Amino acid sequence: MRRILLLITDLEIGGTPTVVRELAMRLHCPPGVEVEVACLSKWGPTATQIAAAGIPVTALGAQGVSSLMVVTNRLIRLINTKHIDTVLSFLVHANAVAALAATFCHHARFFQAIQTTQPRPRWHWRVQGVAHHAARRVIVPTESTGRVAREWSHVPQEKLVIIPNAIDPDAFGRSTIATNPPAPPVPYPIGFVGRLDEVKRVPQLVRQLSVLHQTFPARPVHLHIFGEGDQRQRIEDEIRALHLSKQVTMHGQIDRPHEALQQIGLLVLPSLAEGFGLVLIEAMAAGVPVVATDVPGIRDVVDHERTGLLVPRSAGIELAFGIMRLIEETSLRRRLIENGLREVRERFSWESVMRKYRQVLGIAEKP
Fold first, then answer.
1. Same-domain check for residues 177 and 155
2. What is the pTM of this model?
3. Of 227, 263, 223, 230, which is closest to residue 244 (Cα–Cα)?
4. Which range marks the domain in which residue 138 is found?
5. What is the DSSP letter of 33?
6. Is the pLDDT of residue 68 over 90?
7. What is the pLDDT of residue 32?
8. CATH number of the domain within which 109 lies
């Protein structure tokens, strides 16, 4: 019997927790394999979803750096008590705690995953530079993520394995808004879906919405923002300052992106950096074309003019013009929708991705 533990920093709503949830359910399927999930922090919404699927979940209850050793000891007990033989950790904090636990759990094999290309805080990369020594392999979702892992954390090339994130394309209903958009004066609905973190640059998106309204008054646009995070107050301040309260809807946290994508005809991701950008392929699966910044991680997923539009990382007026171009050019929208769905099925479906995970983790293929 193989016993695998997936360890992550938190199980709130987000791209990496979603990947862990889906991976856990698929690894749990073959006979002879048992999977558990643990997070360093408190119980979150994604933990509830995983537990509902019958997979054991443990919240280790970290309360900051001061509880590092307490959480590490809890992890060691969990690994030993449950006879875990394989640990796959995600994100720097979980990777660091797993690396500490590895010194006391010699019977287990440790693997790590890096899911970001965000340059700061730099100390994250220094910690990762130490932590990776405890891992047999380090999994990254894109070549860009692998490059920064080599450059900033000095992870050897031979230790890196590229396994893209994945979704089930058939789980997403198709949005009809992009193929049958509302005619003016009804606003065209565009959206952002994700955590409201500084790196996502949602306030800049709000500012470009103002540019759209000033430059293209005959084609109104309504921005839907789905998600929560520490940038919410700043975003609301920007909306008030630009007098856009009637043109922006803050929907708050959502459990899954499916319903959000049904309400928009265009997804915008103006991030400064991404490890992958899971919402990009979720939008492609839902028939929602994307406009995103040309930055590491995103450019590994979006092929400019073929599966989406990329704009300069400055996220300035080019972002506004990219949005309007997709709204106005019907043939472009349809081409991106068709190519995007094909790309998701060929490159980012779980069927192909799971083969790579099983190979790295040494799990036999399902009969």
1. no
2. 0.89
3. 223
4. 2-166+349-361
5. E
6. no
7. 83
8. 3.40.50.2000
